[in-house]
Amino acid sequence: MPGPDPHRILLAAGACAVSAFPAQPGRDRAACVVAAAGVLGAPRVDWDAVDLCYRERPIEVKSAGYVQAWRQRQLSRPIFSIAPRLPDSTTGLPQVAALHSDCYVFCLFTPTRHDANPLNVGNWQFYPVATTRLPKTRSVGLPTLNRLAEPVPFADLRSVVDRELGLS
Q1: Count of structural domains, the chain
Q2: The whole model's pTM is what?
């Protein structure tokens, strides 16, 4: 399967209505980047149990960065929540707090300047990790992620997600 077309990021970003992108990379922005890599089966539904479905497998997308939209005295320490959660009651899923995805894609917005462009895929590092490999904790930071996975460039994201899902 050929690698993703980097120009798809602009189409995905437009589809996600990010015309006024703030400096803080949020959940929707990271989902747009992941979608542009071809890891998308259906549009994201707000408050759904997972962020994306790819090849009929649920994927959760988490994002963090060193800079935020607000004024900062110092850079933020990237932390990603992986706490079990209840699905929205309209999903039809059992109301049990759990990790509802098969894979997490942790997206790190790496710039340390507020004027960095979140649409530039070179500004992101991706850490796809199968849910079964995650520690039983409520959050993970970069030291934990670096023990679980190597950062993946945008061009390799789909193939590594396939591997983490056991699809390759």
Answers
A1: 1
A2: 0.79
